[in-house]
Amino acid sequence: MSAESNRRKYDREFKLAAVRLSREAGRTVAGVARDLGIGENLLHRWRSQFAQEGEAAFPGKGHQSPEQEELRRLRQQLVDVTEERDILKKALAVFSRRSK
Questions:
Q1: 41 to 21, 61, 81: CA distances (angstroms)
Q2: All residues at 6 or more sequence positions from 99 whose CB lies less than 8 Å from its CB, including other chains
Q3: What confidence tens digit (pLDDT) does each residue in 1-32 have?
Q4: Integer CA distances (angstroms), 42 to 27, 37, 98, in order
């Protein structure tokens, strides 16, 4: 069995709840992590991600942030435009040969 298949998966709600619990007064990251049965480093990582991305953090598998979706769309557009350019170049070469 690979390490990937042994890895536990946590949904967005669990991660948000863990981050919120760890920010409550009187609670420590270590204590919350222990209570939830997760690693302290994992909770620190979730807190960092939440601090950077806010409510957009933890979009889940298959769900992208608006920035990631825009990047995906622009990359696809680049592929399409490059393909169209290559087709036009080939067509120009074909028509140039015929006119000689």
A1: 15, 21, 44
A2: none
A3: 555 557 788 888 899 999 999 999 899 999 99
A4: 16, 11, 66
Return the structure tokens found at 70.
């825009």
Q: CB count, 10 Å around CB of 15?
A: 21
Its pTM stands at: 0.56
> Taking the alpha carbons of 37, 63, 68, 6 in that order, is the dihedral positive or negative?
positive
Which DSSP string corresponds to the chain? --HHHH-----HHHHHHHHHHHHSTT--HHHHHHHHT--HHHHHHHHHHHHHHGGGS---TT---HHHHHHHHHHHHHHHHHHHHHHHHHHHHHHHHHH-
